[in-house]
Amino acid sequence: MAYDVVWSLSAEQGRDRIVEYLLYDLTSLQASSLVLYELDKMTDLLSDKPEFFALSAEPRLARMGYRKYLFMRYMALHRVEDHTVKVGRIFHASQNYARLV
Prior knowledge:
Radius of gyration: 13 Å
Distance between the termini: 29 Å
Organism: Gordonibacter urolithinfaciens
CATH class: Alpha Beta
Largest sheet: 4 strands, mixed
CATH topology: YaeB-like fold
Oligomer: single chain
InterPro entries: RelE/ParE_toxin, RelE/ParE_toxin_dom_sf
Protein name: Type II toxin-antitoxin system RelE/ParE family toxin
Number of domains: 1
CATH superfamily: RelE-like
Keywords: Toxin-antitoxin system
Number of strands: 4
Strand order of the largest sheet: 1-4-3-2
Number of helices: 4
Strand content: 25-35%
Pfam family, one: ParE_toxin
């Protein structure tokens, strides 16, 4: 059964900041395109098997049902509610994401 995948405003803003940074600050069309490709792939995977991904290593977030998708140097947090996957935030792997959620 396919799940609906919805992005929070925070996740959309995180995606946009990452792409803008790669595209305009680093002037890397290739890297920004790869991020968008990876996020499209993530959306497809989440639609099919959202619980395939590991629970967050942070106990508080794991109790809240957050799972993580790692790609390149980034991490996307999501959780499943009924038949909807909610992408909550996207972070650079160097960030203390538990503090930011």
